[in-house]
C-alpha cells in the first residue's frame, strides 16, 4: 500500500517533516487538543440546542430542565469561537515556528552546495526549493497533517462515547466513520492521484512543446506546416481538458458518496435513538434530536479529508526534492588565524566538474605574493571564473592544491571573508538604504567611516545631494544608480571590509570606455598596497599590473610582466593593438 500512495513512500525515509513533528510535539498536541475541543464545543452547542428545542415543545416538570440547557447553549456558543481562535493562534504559531527552522535548515543545505548549483540544479529547481517547496510543506502541515489528527481525535470520541451507551452502535459508527476517514481518502489518492501525476506530466509537456514551437514558429510557417503546429497544440490541450474533466467528475462522485455516508450516520443515529429512547417516557424522546444534531458540526472536520489527502500528491515532489539535498554538516569549523604577509601558492592545479568528465583546469602553477597585482585573461569558457572560485576556496581542487600561507583555501570556509573580498560583474545592491548596503562590508562601521569610504570612491557629493543621504533607499538591485555608481558603491563596501586580498571578476563589463577607465583608475588607486587579482576579458588598464596570465584550454598559455610580454610575445602585441583599435 505504501508504494501505491506516493506521500507515504516519500515520508518513509523523510528528514524534513517527521523530525519537526517530534521536536514541536507539545505545541502540536495543544493545537490538536484545541482543534478537537472546537468541534466538541460545536457538537455540545447543537446537542443542548436540540434537547432544548425538543424539551420546550412539551410542558417541563421543572424549570431547571429548560434553564440548564439554555445556560449550556450560551456557554458552548461563547466557548466555540474563543477556542477556535486559540486553536488558530496555536496551530499557526506552531507552523511558523516550524517553517522558520525549516527555512534555516534549507538555506544551510543550499549554502554548502551553492557553488555547484549550476552543474547540479536547474534554475526552476532552485526557485522551487526556495519558495514553492516551503509553501508546500507548510500546507502539508496545515491542510493535511493537522486536520487528519483532529479528525482522528473526533473519531475516537464519537466511537468511544457511543460505545459506552451502546457497544453495538459504537461498533457500527467505527465502521461508518472509517469509510469517511480512511476508505474514501485512500480511494481518492489511488484514483485521482494517478490522474494528478498524468495531468502534471501533460501540462509540463504542453509548456515545453509550446515554448519550443513558439521559438521556432517562423520555421513552421516557412515550411508550410502552420496547421500542423496548431493541431499539435490543440491535441495536447484537449488531452489536458479531458484529464481535468475526469478529475472533476471523480471529485463530484466522491463528494456525493461522502454525503451519503454522512446521511447513513445520521439515519443510524435516528434509528438508534428511536429504539433506545422512543419506547420510554416523553422525557427520553428529547434525547433523539440532541444526539442527531450533535453530529452535524463534525461534518466540517471530516468532509475536507479526502481532498486534503489527495493534495499530498502535489507535495510529494517537494518532499523528494528536499530529501535529495545534502545533509548539513553539524561540526564546528576550526578557527584559522594567519598573519601577513599573505601569499597564495597554486601547485599543479587540476579541476573537473563533479559528476562529469569535463576537465576545466590542467596543471596550473602560480605564485601570488602579498601586494602583487595580477591580471588573469582568457576567452569565455577558458576556466577564469572557475579558477577564481578555487582561489576563494568555494571549490575543492580535483588534484593539486591552492594554499594561502600554507593552508588550503577550501578549509577556510566562512573565515575566508576576513582575507578575501570580491567585486564581480554585476555588484548587487539590496532594496534597503545606502548605509545598510555599505555596512555589509563592516556591520560596525560608523557614519564617518561610511562617508570616508564614499569620498575615496568619488560618491560622497552625489550621496550628499540626495534628500536622505545615507538613508536613501537604493531600490531593488540598486537600479536607481548607474552601472559605474553601483561598481563604486561595491568598492566602498570592499574598502570597509578591508581585506588583504581583493578579487575583481570582470567588474567593468557593460560600462562605456570612459566610465570603465574611470572605474579602473579608482580601483587601482584605492586598492594600492593590497593583493589584487583582476579577471578581465580585454587589456584596458593591463599596463598597471605586475603580472599578466593568459589561460587557454585550462592551461597557462602566456605569463609575465606587461613589458616582457610586449617584447617577447607576438600574440600579446596583436591582442593589445586590437584592444586599442589599432
Automatic annotation (TrEMBL):
<feature type="domain" description="ABC transporter">
    <location>
        <begin position="344"/>
        <end position="578"/>
    </location>
</feature>
<keyword id="KW-0067">ATP-binding</keyword>
<dbReference type="InterPro" id="IPR027417">
    <property type="entry name" value="P-loop_NTPase"/>
</dbReference>
<keyword id="KW-0812">Transmembrane</keyword>
<protein>
    <submittedName>
        <fullName>Thiol reductant ABC exporter subunit CydC</fullName>
    </submittedName>
</protein>
<keyword id="KW-1133">Transmembrane helix</keyword>
<feature type="transmembrane region" description="Helical">
    <location>
        <begin position="256"/>
        <end position="275"/>
    </location>
</feature>
<dbReference type="InterPro" id="IPR011527">
    <property type="entry name" value="ABC1_TM_dom"/>
</dbReference>
<dbReference type="GO" id="GO:0016887">
    <property type="term" value="F:ATP hydrolysis activity"/>
</dbReference>
<dbReference type="InterPro" id="IPR003439">
    <property type="entry name" value="ABC_transporter-like_ATP-bd"/>
</dbReference>
<dbReference type="GO" id="GO:0034775">
    <property type="term" value="P:glutathione transmembrane transport"/>
</dbReference>
<keyword id="KW-0547">Nucleotide-binding</keyword>
<dbReference type="Pfam" id="PF00005">
    <property type="entry name" value="ABC_tran"/>
</dbReference>
<dbReference type="InterPro" id="IPR039421">
    <property type="entry name" value="Type_1_exporter"/>
</dbReference>
<feature type="transmembrane region" description="Helical">
    <location>
        <begin position="64"/>
        <end position="83"/>
    </location>
</feature>
<dbReference type="GO" id="GO:0005524">
    <property type="term" value="F:ATP binding"/>
</dbReference>
<dbReference type="InterPro" id="IPR003593">
    <property type="entry name" value="AAA+_ATPase"/>
</dbReference>
<feature type="domain" description="ABC transmembrane type-1">
    <location>
        <begin position="29"/>
        <end position="277"/>
    </location>
</feature>
<keyword id="KW-0472">Membrane</keyword>
<feature type="transmembrane region" description="Helical">
    <location>
        <begin position="28"/>
        <end position="52"/>
    </location>
</feature>
<dbReference type="InterPro" id="IPR036640">
    <property type="entry name" value="ABC1_TM_sf"/>
</dbReference>
<dbReference type="GO" id="GO:0045454">
    <property type="term" value="P:cell redox homeostasis"/>
</dbReference>
<feature type="transmembrane region" description="Helical">
    <location>
        <begin position="287"/>
        <end position="309"/>
    </location>
</feature>
<feature type="transmembrane region" description="Helical">
    <location>
        <begin position="171"/>
        <end position="191"/>
    </location>
</feature>
<dbReference type="InterPro" id="IPR014223">
    <property type="entry name" value="ABC_CydC/D"/>
</dbReference>
<dbReference type="GO" id="GO:0005886">
    <property type="term" value="C:plasma membrane"/>
</dbReference>
<feature type="transmembrane region" description="Helical">
    <location>
        <begin position="145"/>
        <end position="165"/>
    </location>
</feature>
<dbReference type="Pfam" id="PF00664">
    <property type="entry name" value="ABC_membrane"/>
</dbReference>
<dbReference type="GO" id="GO:0015421">
    <property type="term" value="F:ABC-type oligopeptide transporter activity"/>
</dbReference>
